[in-house]
Amino acid sequence: MTGHNEQAITQQPFGEHILIVHPPAALDNNNAHEMVDVITTAQTSGYRYIILDMTDVEFLSSAGVGSILGTVESSRERGGDIILCNLAEPILHILGILDLGEYLTIHPNQEAALARCGMK
Amino acid sequence: MSTDTTHVMLSVPVDVSPVAEEELEQVLRRYLDGQPTSVNEDCTQLEQVTSRHVDPLRGACLLCRELGIPMRLHGISAGLERVLKVLHARHFFGTSVGATAKSSLEGAPNQPAGDVRGTYADEFSSSIKNIRDAQERFLHFLKDIHVPPMTEFELRTVFYEVLGNICLHSGMPSGERIAVSAHADNTKIVLTFADRGIPFDPIRDAPEIDLRVAARGGRQRGFGIAMVRKLTDRMHYVRQHGAVNLLTIEKRWKP
């Protein structure tokens, strides 16, 4: 597992069909396009499940929200999903206000997210 | 004048002749070359104050802001306070007024415990890269006035979204200035954003979006105004003098 710094989006394959992605502290206009690239590349590479481990994320702008929202259906059409875990309370609060809490697949931690994918 | 290696205290002279003003600026620039952590302008000598005393203070504040060095005014007399108020200049100095957050409050000494009013002002060059720094400065203001954590996060988000839209969509060349100010009292905070970009009324010109419907269509962009609408209580737009977009946003809160 690579360390995380403030800027980098890091990735960690977990088995054949799962990719764990760690966004940095801010997911905003500066890196949302990169996030989309990471997700869409993962999808076309055959990863059905993409777990976004949001442990380091302190700020999520509309561009960051869009990078997730715009790619979720693509995973679901492939029989998988984009699963968010380890969200800080303010981020959960914002997603709730945007009425996305039930649309997105959200789990409290990585273990629960992996269990959702059928993995332990 | 006294300095240590990081904090500069400059006494503002009573003499406001052009020569004295130029001397003050030269002294300030010399100290700014040393990249101090902060600059404090000691205004205790300014008892009999006129509007001409404000210009060098404003110039010093702008100079410090350009270099990202916080500046505060200390020892503000009643006379200086009055002049700042008459000139509507108090908002310009925002949280740079006073040694502590409390002394930046209007009428602070007589306020009941828990009163949390304050003003803020900032301006910076239109660029996505500058938004994060501006956001940090705004966060300091919110912390100074003890905004509850979730309200602080919502305001931080609103601040970023509005400025992001201005930087990306206003058509302004990079380097054009954007001005932001805020006024908070016990019941609400009012943010005002001013830019010289193309006319855009977010209330009238931006359609309502259902985020879930948009997501099902694979849409990735255009959610900023939707977020601002959901996180605030009121928005007002006006095109001022045919040249300036003035967006005012109000958010109610409980201290």
Give the radius of gyration of chain A: 13 Å
Give the overall silhouette of chain B.
Answer: elongated
Sheet with most strands of chain A: 5 strands, mixed
Mean pLDDT of chain B: 77
C-alpha Rg of chain B (nearest Å): 20 Å
Number of helices of chain A: 4
The overall strand count of chain B is 9
Order of helices and strands of chain B: EEHEHEHHEHHEEHHHEE
Strand proportion of chain A: 15-25%
Uncertain runs of chain B are: 1-5, 95-116
Description:
- In chain A, 38% of the residues lie in helices and 22% in strands.
- By secondary structure, chain A is α/β, with parallel strands linked by helices.
- In chain A, the strands form two sheets. Chain A has a five-stranded mixed beta sheet.
- Chain A is globular.
- Chain B has a five-stranded antiparallel beta sheet with strand order 5-6-7-9-8. Chain B has a four-stranded mixed beta sheet with strand order 1-2-3-4, covered by helices on one side.
- In chain B, helix 2 links the parallel strand 3 and strand 4.
- In chain B, helix 5 packs antiparallel against helix 6 and helix 6 packs antiparallel against helix 9.
- The longest helix of chain B is centred in the middle third of the chain and has 21 residues.
